[in-house]
Amino acid sequence: MGSKTITTYTMKKILFLIALICMAATPGANARKKPQVKQHTVVEVPKVQPQLIEIETENTQLLLRTTEKGELQQVRYGRKLDTAPFRSTGKRTARAYPTAGGYTPDDAALAVTYPDGSLNTELYVTGVAQKQADGVATTEISLKDYVTLLEVKLVYEAYLKEDVIASHSEITNPGKKPVTLTSFASASLNVPGEEFLLTQFHGDWAFEMQVERTPVPYGLTSIETRRGVQTTQRANPSFVLSVNAREFSETSGDVIAGALEWSGNYKIDFSRGTGGSVDIIAGINPFNSAYPLAPGTTFQTPRMLWTFSSNGAGDASRSFHRWARRHQVYRGGEINPTLLNSWEGAYFTFKTPVLTAMIDDAAAMGLELFVLDDGWFAKDFPRNDDSQGLGDWELNTDKIPEGIDYLASYAHDKGIKFGIWIEPEMVNPKSNLAAAHPDWVVRSPGREILQERNQWILDLSNPAVQDFVYGVFDGTMALSDKIDYIKWDCNRPVESMGSDYLGAQQNRFYIEYIQGFYNVVRRIREKYPDVIVQCCSSGGARVDYGAMKYFNEFWVSDNTDAITRLKIQYGTSMLYPACLHGSHVSAVPNHQTGNMTPLKFRFDVACTGRLGMELQPKNMTADERAFASRCIESYKQYRDLVFTGDLYRLGDPWNTDLYSLMYVSEDKSRAVLFAYSTTFRSRALEAPVVKLQGLDPSKTYKVTELNTEHSCWWGNNQSFKGDYLTLEGLDVEFRRMFDSAVFYITAQ
């Protein structure tokens, strides 16, 4: 038995070995063929003459250069210096516009997927052109990928007097097949340093533009939004970066401030490596927006705005403010009228007599404009609350049988202007518009259309919807030739994104919605150049420089509480000038916070922006209305300083119990100072001191406190040298929370 078993095993083993030998000797189905390596041809990149590219304002300098190979490098950005030392190739450099390809960047400004699936892009300079006109020096740098033939133009606009540089990219597909842009930033900036303090802005409804300051950690930090619309309510596309600093300063240290000129999804990345620098890449957020670039077409990114200051954040803010007033904000720096808005005074409950009485009171107090807010429209679904009627823009004759022209004429007869509210991008499900055009609503097939504030959002990527939204504005203006002001609202973000119009190209939606919005407001400005238009979006949810090309002002926040507004307006002032800030005096208890604040404190806070009121004047006492008239009259005395002057923040509302700020005229002949007590101070403590800034130390100034019978400062109505006011300041007798003062300062 055992012998037979061994013989069988041996035979099987021999047969197995023979089979292996045969398989090795004879080619079969499993034999591997030797791989065929294709000939690899490297495309030769033409050499170029190395060149230093100088992009300069009066006080700042961005230096780029090309290498012999044609690579574009950033040399430095900062205070203007002699360029001679930077002409050596041995100086430290960074890639000026990093791409996904070649040397691997920590973050890429541009990433492209090509028709063959390739993901690499390497750009080389093909030309540089520079020109100057009207105080703006423009530099255009053309680049090319010699393998894919993709072309990119980087455009830098240096605003000479304002020390602001605007940069954007233009990406062209000269090929015969479409490519897909998966990242397409406007600009990149490398900032050397040992440590960095980032000031950014966060918030929510009634809590916008809260300041957060954090050291920039190693790795990637982003400021971004994916809300589609209302993109600045949670975070703002702007920042202040303190370089080589652990603490924020208004008056000292190197600072770079930036803001993106875009009203949609955005992303600003701060990539800090171990090499001692931060790379900032900013532009449209590529989230759900891989963009197909057709043959022969160009995609232009929004501009990224930069400024540099070697004297702290205050100078950076003032540079942005001057640039915005002179070059960006629609009719920036022009004086917009004081106003009474009907919203918190009447909400949806009004008829003509209520409104005419409010117009009477507005005129009697010295206000210059009355604005009729939400609730005036829709017949079949009357707009008596926010649940219906939005989208049906015909007059509700049950409320105003006489017509809008009657109200506008009534206001004009009283010597004041007239304005009206619209929200043309939105629709209530309960409306004729929603029933007639369900295909106009932003929606995802097969899914519930999510509501917010009982409303849906219209699809502005659709040209037909653009025409409708334009028609809402145009039709509203047709209600009376005496409409002077439009309040444009936008009360919800995009959710469950989808566009019937775009079909299979849904990834174009977020970008083309905003482009559609810009198309509409551009058309409006062509026909109605003189109408004042406020940008409102549940308060401050559309505070950005893209929208401000078409709007005269924005509504800072639906929160009208004065003590909360100190912080909101402080954060907003970092990048956006006071001529944009709609700031209103409202009733107490405040409708958002329940806070009780004195009427004087409320006026002293609201007067730091475009002054308005948002209450029912009939609920004020005679003394309160008289005091309001006094404050409005004094505001008109100095409001040109608020609209056009240089802002100096003298502290902040978080880290001091005495917050103050001032505006100074360009020639330093006039100023206005605001001061606020935010806590109780014991009598045992010395009076807080406010040290002024921005005055001419050699000039003599008279200082007068406004809107009070009993000044809080012993030097009231006296004259002092500018250096005394700067070095010694005003020791104001603030003892109670909500003490406040306004000082008007004039050179003698």
Q: What do you see in this structure?
A:
This protein is an alpha+beta fold and 748 residues long. The protein has 12 helices and 38 strands. The strands form 7 sheets. Strands 6, 7, 8, 9, 11, 12, 14, 15, 19 and 20 form a 10-stranded antiparallel beta sheet that branches. It has an 8-stranded parallel β-barrel with strand order 21-22-23-26-27-28-29-30, surrounded by 6 helices. Strand 32 (658-664) and strand 33 (670-677) form a beta hairpin. Helix 7 runs parallel beside helix 8 (509-527). The chain is globular. The termini are far apart.
How many DSSP E strands? Answer: 38
Which term fits the overall shape?
A: globular
N-to-C span: 129 Å
Give the proportion of residues in helices. Answer: 10-25%
Radius of gyration: 31 Å
Largest β-sheet summary: 10 strands, antiparallel
Q: Count helical runs.
A: 12
- The proportion of residues in beta strands is 25-35%
Briefly, what is this?
The protein is of the alpha+beta class. It contains twelve helices and 38 strands.
Fold topology:
Elements: H1 2-25, E1 51-56, E2 60-66, E3 72-79, E4 94-95, E5 110-113, E6 124-133, E7 136-144, E8 151-159, E9 164-173, E10 179-192, E11 196-202, E12 210-215, E13 219-224, E14 238-243, E15 254-260, E16 266-272, E17 277-284, E18 291-293, E19 297-300, E20 304-309, H2 312-328, E21 339-341, H3 343-346, H4 352-365, E22 369-372, H5 404-413, E23 417-422, E24 426-427, H6 432-436, E25 456-457, H7 463-477, E26 485-488, H8 509-527, E27 532-535, E28 553-555, H9 562-573, E29 581-586, H10 599-606, E30 610-614, H11 622-644, E31 646-650, E32 658-664, E33 670-677, E34 689-690, E35 700-705, E36 718-721, H12 722-727, E37 730-731, E38 740-747
Helix pairs in contact: 7-8, 9-10, 10-11
